[in-house]
């Protein structure tokens, strides 16, 4: 299922296209894990959409990281 990964400070237009929710979570984990090792954190959202133009402001999932990825359905 095609989706878009949006980091907390990014605009909707800056969301990264991913082929699946699993890929989006994997991409987020790589970024969040590196920041976590420096004592920093970042949250992100996953928006299910076919194109960037269809990305809704309200996400389908919210991601956070505390040693592991936490994925919550909205």
Could you outline the blueprint of secondary structure elements for this entry?
Elements: E1 3-7, E2 16-18, H1 21-37, E3 44-48, E4 61-65, E5 69-73
Antiparallel strand pairs: 1-2, 1-3, 3-4, 4-5
Name the quaternary structure.
Answer: single chain
Strand order of the largest sheet: 2-1-3-4-5
Total domain count: 1
Tally of contiguous helical segments: 1
State Rg: 12 Å
Low-confidence stretches: none
Main sheet summary: 5 strands, antiparallel
Per DSSP E runs of 2 or more residues, the count of β-strands stands at 5
Distance between the termini: 17 Å
The coarse overall form would be globular
Proportion in β-strands: 25-35%
The succession of helices and strands, N to C, reads EEHEEE
Describe the structure.
It is a single chain. The chain has one domain. The chain is built from 1 helix and 5 strands. It has one helix at residues 21-37; strands at 3-7, 16-18, 44-48, 61-65, 69-73. Strands 2-1-3-4-5 form a 5-stranded antiparallel sheet, covered by helices on one side.
Q: Which descriptors would you attach to this protein?
A:
single chain, 74 residues, alpha+beta, 5-stranded antiparallel beta sheet, 5 strands, 31% strand, globular
Short description:
The protein is built from 1 helix and 5 strands; from the N terminus they run E-E-H-E-E-E. It has 74 residues and is an alpha+beta fold.
């Amino acid at each position: 299922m095609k989706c878009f990964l949006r980091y907390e400070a990014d605009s909707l237009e800056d969301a990264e296209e991913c082929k699946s929710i699993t890929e989006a979570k994997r991409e987020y984990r790589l970024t969040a894990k590196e920041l976590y090792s420096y004592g920093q954190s970042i949250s992100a959202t996953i928006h299910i959409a076919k194109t960037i133009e269809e990305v809704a402001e309200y996400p389908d999932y919210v991601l956070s990281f505390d040693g592991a990825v936490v994925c919550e359905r909205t």
